[in-house]
Amino acid sequence: MNLIESIIERAKADKQRIVLPEGTEKRTLQAADQLVRDGVAEIILLGNPEEIMLLAQEMKLKYIERAIIIDPGRHDKKNIYIELLVELRKKKGMTFEEAALLVEDPLYLACLMIKNGDADGEIAGAQNTTGDVLRPALQIIKTSPGVKVVSGAFIMITQTPQYGENGTLIFADCAVMPNPNAEELASIALASAQTAKDIVGVEPKVAMLSFSTKGSAEHEMIDKVREATRIAKERNPSLQIDGELQADAALVPSVGVSKAPGSTIAGKANVLVFPTLESGNIAYKLVQRLGNAEAVGPVLQGMAAPVNDLSRGCSVEDIYRMVAIAANQSIGMKQNK
């Protein structure tokens, strides 16, 4: 069984409630139909029920009627969510009238459902921008306790089994934070370690990457990585983490022994934390294209509940996988409470 199959099987074994706010988007509907058919998750679609069922009929979808379909404009819990939003945003001056309009926005409604305990996770972005998806999530669901930032990780499934966990590694941050400071970089490392546990199912070995290994160079950019490593160790003393390490020292056992003797991570890393967004984003795309690796993600990390953002060019398969990944994130979060 490969990694994706394992993720799907874990989701099936402990069904989570995943809400899809873009309920009238055709790729989303097709993925939802397959997810319901396969029993991967309990699917909640937001949108006009008549429009959803008409589209399902046109697309010859057979299982949509088994999903929970909620009309954002008319449903039993509308007033509960309005009051919840007012309470959450009262310090920002949120009025009842403003909240009444926002709860009809599927992206806000999805987050309120999660906050109220009526759903476990959300997948969106097939027709909305990343900013539109993240804005209500950060306002309503917010970040996990102790986590300062949201970041984006890619699960890199490579054809080099000698590296990472049988060729699988976590790369972060590749999607969100342009230039994290030391404290933010530490948060990214902790969140990435949790992603390795919850989704890949491995014990994380985190390498904090730089262009220096253990003092081979000196620069303020290296200082940031060293400080981030110290902070991460302080926050989670049991975490296996080391830095600063160059990429070859992190991955290749012989290089690790030579450049970082005594390190428990050098040559064994399965989680790579990059110092900036540009380095992480460039690295994952180079490995994907030149190394013919499969890049699954981005998986958003650091939220108090799973909220994952799709590319607007996503495929049905992408949506299907991200629902299974969100389910695994939710399972892991519940186990860690």
Model description:
- This protein has 337 residues and is α/β, with parallel strands linked by helices.
- It has two domains: 3-142 and 303-336, Rossmann fold; 151-295, Isocitrate/Isopropylmalate dehydrogenase-like (Rossmann fold, 3-Layer(aba) Sandwich).
- Helices cover 47% and strands 16% of the residues.
- The protein has helices spanning 3-13, 26-38, 49-58, 78-89, 96-102, 106-115, 130-141, 182-200, 220-235, 247-251, 253-259, 277-290, 316-336, and strands spanning 17-20, 42-46, 68-70, 121-124, 151-157, 168-172, 205-209, 240-245, 271-273, 294-301, 307-309.
- A six-stranded mixed β-sheet has the order 8-7-9-6-5-10, with helices on both faces.
- Helix 1 packs across helix 13, helix 4 packs across helix 5 and helix 6 runs parallel beside helix 7.
- The protein is globular and about 65 Å long.
- The mean pLDDT is 95.
Which structural traits does this protein have?
Rossmann fold, 5-stranded parallel β-sheet, alpha/beta, single chain, 47% helix, globular, 337 residues, 2 domains, 6-stranded mixed β-sheet, 11 strands, 13 helices
Topology:
Layout: H1 3-13, E1 17-20, H2 26-38, E2 42-46, H3 49-58, E3 68-70, H4 78-89, H5 96-102, H6 106-115, E4 121-124, H7 130-141, E5 151-157, E6 168-172, H8 182-200, E7 205-209, H9 220-235, E8 240-245, H10 247-251, H11 253-259, E9 271-273, H12 277-290, E10 294-301, E11 307-309, H13 316-336
